[in-house]
Amino acid sequence: MAKLSVEGISHAYPTPGGAPQNVLENVSLQIEAGEFISVIGASGSGKTTLLRIIARLIQPSEGAILIDGRGLVRPGAPTSFVFQQDALWPWRSVLANAAYGLEIRGLPKAAAEERARSYLQLVGLGEYERYYPHQLSGGMRQRVNLARALTVDPDILLMDEPFAALDAQTRELMQLELARIWQETGKTIVFVTHQIDEAVFLADRVVTLSARPGTVRAITAIDLGRPRLIRDKRSDAFQAYVGQLWDMIESDVVRDFREGTV
């Protein structure tokens, strides 16, 4: 049985004119426990909408989300969501931010902080627990965000372009960090990105969505060894995957650019 089953998901948003706008159409995926899945596609192809539906933040127009064969009826466990912006509370310390998810689930403060400390160690921020968000770099804040998501021990981690706001060098280091954490925790990860090389570097499989309404255009297995290093991005095999995936979405991206939708 798949850890995560996306079964015939379609979704439409209302528009000012009244006619609904179809964003996703009959999207189906089977994701195994411990897999790292990247999702790519042109802007507006429904990538973020798909993540939000998996997290039950949005109710789909059609279809079902199953985890271990069971439907989800509310947001929260067994999924955790990492957004593009770190969304840390500025008045809370690093430790208090990391423990927040456990606190709102009713865990006593001391127990929540004890567990949060272990995950801050995992993301390399154990010495910064008394710092505040304004004292951290962008990459460090996003690592706190990741620690907070992990403290609730989700089965599935949903990540929506979490490194998009970082500079290029920090972004590559965060890719390495995430790959390490994934291998240490064994979490199932669904990761949305616009960066094709990032998708290839991190994923076991890359799901390519078509232009709106998003459908599954292709699912590409990434047959590269692990652990992967940044220099591996320069290899012929790596670049072949990047070129193959870019070819799938290039016409969608160019059309959106010319029509002024990006």
Describe this structure as you would to a colleague.
With 262 residues, the protein is α/β, with parallel strands linked by helices. The protein folds into two domains: 4-78 and 154-258, P-loop containing nucleotide triphosphate hydrolases (Rossmann fold, 3-Layer(aba) Sandwich); 89-152, no CATH class. Helix content is 36%, strand content 23%. The protein has seven helices and ten strands. The strands form two sheets. A six-stranded mixed beta sheet has the order 6-7-8-3-9-10, sandwiched between helices. α2 (94-104) crosses α3 (109-122) and α3 (109-122) packs across α4. It starts with a strand and ends with a helix. The mean pLDDT is 91.
Q: What topology emerges from the helices and strands here?
A:
Elements: E1 4-13, E2 21-31, E3 36-40, H1 47-54, E4 62-67, E5 70-71, E6 79-82, H2 94-104, H3 109-122, H4 138-151, E7 156-160, H5 168-185, E8 188-192, H6 196-202, E9 205-209, E10 216-221, H7 236-258
Parallel strand pairs: 3-8, 3-9, 6-7, 7-8
Antiparallel strand pairs: 1-2, 1-4, 4-5, 9-10
Helix pairs in contact: 2-3, 2-4, 3-4, 6-7
Strand content: 15-25%
Radius of gyration: 19 Å
Give the name of the CATH superfamily of the largest domain.
P-loop containing nucleotide triphosphate hydrolases
CATH architecture annotation of the largest domain? 3-Layer(aba) Sandwich
Q: What does the main sheet amount to?
A: 6 strands, mixed
Total domain count: 2
Mean pLDDT, all residues: 91
* Overall 3D shape: globular
Number of strands: 10
- From the 3D structure, determine the CATH topology of the largest domain: Rossmann fold
The N- to C-terminal Cα distance equals: 39 Å
Task: Briefly note the structural class of the backbone.
Answer: alpha/beta
- State the order of secondary-structure elements, H for helix, E for strand: EEEHEEEHHHEHEHEEH
Biggest sheet strand order reads 6-7-8-3-9-10
- Please count the helical segments: 7
Helix content: 25-40%
